[in-house]
Specification:
Blueprint: H1 23-28, E1 33-37, E2 40-43, E3 48-51, H2 54-57, H3 66-78, H4 90-102, E4 107-113, H5 116-133, E5 141-145, H6 154-159, H7 163-166, E6 176-179, H8 185-188, H9 204-212, E7 217-222, H10 238-248, E8 252-256, H11 270-274, E9 280-283, E10 295-300, H12 301-305, H13 327-342, H14 345-361, E11 369-375, E12 378-383, H15 392-403, E13 406-407, E14 409-411, E15 414-417, H16 425-440
Parallel strand pairs: 3-13, 5-6, 5-7, 7-8, 8-9
Antiparallel strand pairs: 1-2, 2-3, 4-10, 9-10, 11-12, 12-15, 14-15
Helix pairs in contact: 3-13, 4-13, 14-16
Length: 443
């Protein structure tokens, strides 16, 4: 139906089957965002809503950034689309070069996708194909982690460990196992930054290796900081030990940095922040500031070069997407990386992170708050569930906060926040102060 310009809300909401949404509840009382600028959304009823989630963990530079908007406009008028199979266009190569220059030193090659989910699928396929290319064809198993989130495609939900994302979709991929998650509230509740306890949980990989045999395992994939499951921070020493064990057994280590990439921890990537170098980095979201779908897999020279044997005219990797390295997405990516650099947003995030931490932990002691977790510009506030009604308490907080012009996100009974890196102290005060008021009145 046509849109009534005097009312930006369509008069029929039934056709759009919304993702990860309580569709019936939403369509009875829709929450419509119609524009955005820097730290705020504007709603259909004219309210300014403070963005406490960078959209969906993706608008790291804030909204409506001039350089990104202009890059998209210019590129659309110059070259709207170009095939990436046996053809190329300059901006895809330029963006790949800039990503290589930004990424940790071992990462020298970039494979473009359209999303975090597709980047995960790509990395898993590359891992198995790499092992075959180096003569280790028996290495086909993939190891994920309980409570891990790696997108919603079949590979991602197979190595992922969030129950509701898995249980409706059959038997998933075979040959997958899972490390235990690292959430230890009894020992680590209200930790500031990395928890003290749980680094030894990485040693569970030794048990899995003994069970299946190292010669069967291709790769381990983990989020350095788990986001969508409710902000789980890695215990001290955990990632370092995981790297040590994967290297010991000839297993590739993949970091899913769809959330942690591009400044979320005050560094280009979590690999930089923790000084732990995986074999591949999966990224998306902040790559284009969330403006246009794009993802990427960053790989070492060793992995890339393993595919570069045989006749030069033969395709080395039978994988890719229609929109890999799309021209407009590439232009948006270049402009996004320039915005980060010119405004020093990664450094800015690191500078304001202590203020963010203090503000978050000021919520300790409020009704129903049973844990607070933080690292960089990420925060999680865990609430005690209502008996027999899981998720309801946090979702009620989400609705109340939105009514008070603040956007937060919930997963289960956990409130997750990840504001744009341009956030100022006054914004933090408003965000956390509003949330405190909501929590005081929450039943």
């Amino acid at each position: 139906m046509a849109l009534d310009r005097s009312n930006p809300v369509p008069n029929d909401l039934s056709a759009f089957w919304m993702p990860f949404t309580a569709n019936r509840q939403f369509k009875k009382a829709p929450r419509m965002l119609v524009s955005a600028d820097r730290m705020h959304y504007r709603t259909a009823d004219g309210r300014e809503v403070l963005d406490g989630t960078a959209g969906l963990w993706c608008c790291n530079a804030g909204h409506n950034r001039p350089k990104i908007v202009e890059a998209i406009r210019q590129q659309a008028g110059e070259l709207d689309y170009a095939p990436a199979f046996q053809m190329g266009h300059p901006k895809a190569f330029e963006l790949a070069n800039r990503l290589r220059d930004m990424a940790p030193a071992p990462m020298e090659h970039v494979f473009f996708t359209n999303s975090g989910s597709e980047s995960v699928e790509t990395a898993l396929k590359i891992a198995i194909a790499y092992q075959r290319a180096i003569g280790q064809a028996s290495r086909t198993r993939l190891i994920g982690r309980e409570r891990g989130y790696h997108g919603v495609n079949f590979g991602g939900i197979s190595v992922g460990g969030i129950v509701n994302n898995r249980k409706f979709f059959g038997s998933l991929l075979t040959g997958v196992d899972h490390l235990p998650h690292t959430h230890l509230p009894g020992q680590n509740a209200f930790s500031r930054g990395q928890p003290e306890h749980g680094g030894n949980l990485a040693d569970e990989l030794e048990r899995i290796v003994a069970l299946h045999g190292p010669e069967t395992i291709a790769a381990v994939i983990v989020e350095p900081v788990a986001g969508s499951t409710g902000v789980l921070i890695p215990p001290k020493g955990y990632l370092q030990r995981l790297r040590e064990l994967t290297r010991k057994h000839g297993i590739l280590l993949i970091f899913d940095e769809v959330i942690t990439g591009f400044g979320r921890l005050g560094a280009p990537f979590a690999a930089d922040y923790f000084d732990v170098m995986p074999d591949m980095i999966v990224c998306a979201k902040g790559l284009t500031n969330g403006v246009i779908p794009m993802g990427a897999v960053l790989a070492t020279k060793e992995i890339h070069d393993a595919f570069m044997g045989g006749p030069e005219h033969v395709i080395e990797l039978f994988h890719g997407y229609t929109y890999s390295g799309n021209p407009i997405a590439s232009a948006a990516g270049i402009a996004t990386l320039e915005t980060y650099k010119e405004e020093g947003l990664f450094e800015r995030a690191a500078e304001i992170a202590p203020y963010w931490e203090d503000a978050l932990h000021s919520l300790k002691g409020l009704p129903h708050v049973i844990d607070i977790r933080n690292l960089g510009l990420i925060g999680g506030v865990e609430l005690e569930p209502i008996a027999g009604e899981p998720t309801k308490r946090a979702f009620t907080a989400f609705l109340e906060a939105y009514d008070r012009n603040v956007l937060i996100r919930t997963t289960g009974d956990i409130i997750a926040m990840s504001p744009p890196l341009i956030i100022e102290k006054g914004h933090i005060d408003t965000l956390i102060g509003t949330l405190a008021d909501v929590l005081r009145k929450l039943h």
